[in-house]
Amino acid sequence: MKHNHAILALSALMLIVTPSPGSIVQANGEQVEETQNAAPTEAQKKLINTFDNHIKDYLRQRNQVKEKLPKLSKDSTAEQIHSYQVAFVEALRAMRAGTNPGYIFQPEIAAYIRALIKDEFKGSERVELRQSVLEADTKGVPLRVNYPYPESKELNQTPPTLLLRLPQLPKEVKYRFVGTNMLLVDTDNGLIVDYMTKALP
Amino acid sequence: MKRISAFALALLLLNGLLLLNRFNSQVAAQSTKSGTAKAVRVAAKPLKITLPRKEGSVRFLAIGDTGTGSDKQQELADVMVRSHSEFPFDAVLMMGDNMYGGEGPKDFLTKFENIYRPLIDQKVKFYASLGNHDEPAQRFYQHFNMDGKEYYRFTRGNVAFYALNSNYMDKKQVDWLNSELGKDTSQWKIAFMHHPPYSSGSKHGSDKKLREVVEPIFLKHGVNVVLTGHDHFYERVKPQKGIYYFVSGAGGKLRPGDVKDNSPLTDKAFDKDMSFMLIEIADDQMYFQVLSRTGETIDEGVISNPRKK
User: Fold this and answer.
1) What is the DSSP letter of A68?
2) Around Cβ A60, how many Cβ atoms within 10 Å?
3) pTM to 2 decimals?
4) Do A81 and B102 touch (CB under 8 A)?
5) Are strands A173-178 and B125-128 parallel, antiparallel or unpaired?
6) Chain B nearest C-alpha distance from A16 (Å)
7) Is A185 helix (H, G, I), strand (E, B) or coil?
8) Bridge partners, A133 (sequence order)
9) ipTM value of the model?
10) pLDDT tens column, B59-83
11) Could you read off the pLDDT of A19-29 as tens digits, one per residue?
């Protein structure tokens, strides 16, 4: 009985996380799957909404810290930028002490994102993505929440077509591939806000 | 006869002394700033600038992947300074990877400020875009003139420049680009960014996913020229759907032999030494000249803009 419930739950989850395919009819009449612009289902929208709310929670914490810092002008010196980043990270780490991985990338949204990436990159494109991500100089980036992304390490390009499909983020946070993982990194201070594993198909 | 010979000899001696004096003063001027080794380079022969230098023209330099702080980056910068004295430009477009490795205060000095000091002192403005080695916080750096933004637009005369963040081309940026280009009536629209939608590089090559997103926007709104980096060489790509794409990614690093042989994309490529582009826009003509670290011209030409103001 327990086994049946588990199968049902898993099936429901698979239905939620699999990107909903649209379909188009080609000139030759053949119907092909088209997921590029497929709108999320209602269940997926709920997942994205929860994800958005967790991002907003982070932004609230971040903004509380930011308000207490001196404003960084658009004509800052290198020293001013550096001091700002250090102060920002330290204060934010203190405030978020004890935050566990997966607070934002909860299992359902992580599975949805994994499926999106898998769907976006197929065949040779997937090989190229893996090659480009895995060859990048990101060795030594800590897979730890609340740690700063080392400034000496490469920031992998997040593929534009994927960015258009992933849940949209505010400008303060960015998706970054590191190895086979996907990180959420703060734009201004480099803090690793959260991460999910096995993101790279 | 003897008097004439003595006079000629005196003239020769005087000329020699004058030349020696000129050389010494150049050496002395440079030595106070950067040491004797660089003084030798100052005495190099003048550059052959072929650009027309028309009155009122828009002049700028394009360079990418600079931020190593290496001797070779410095040597190329010296050629940039020499070219500035013969072809005064007031802007340098940076194609990203402005800082390799660390980005502490000292890095900004050794990988940027010290290298380009003569140009900064002459009020040349550097406009940076972000590469995969650049922290977004660079947008606040005073000498990168990014106005605190990861992507931005500025104009010079009849030219609109769009600095894009190809490392993170999200929906917000795509919408911004569409909107800004949609209302832009400039005669020339030039985009610059790190990753190349078209390139014959073996290591990286064309960024097809980026192309899929930005090319339709460029075509829709009449972007004329796209300047990029990432691949560490120079390439002038054959016009693609009417748009001229350049790769100028050898400002601090070089990947020798990286251009694919017989690439159908290449009009002209150079991967044997580091390089930068000098560009002049006068009315509907864009003139360009590409110089190497030794001051050799490796490419030059002119692009016409069929669109009127």
Assistant:
1) T
2) 9
3) 0.86
4) no
5) unpaired
6) 24
7) strand
8) none
9) 0.85
10) 999 999 999 999 999 999 999 999 9
11) 544 333 333 33
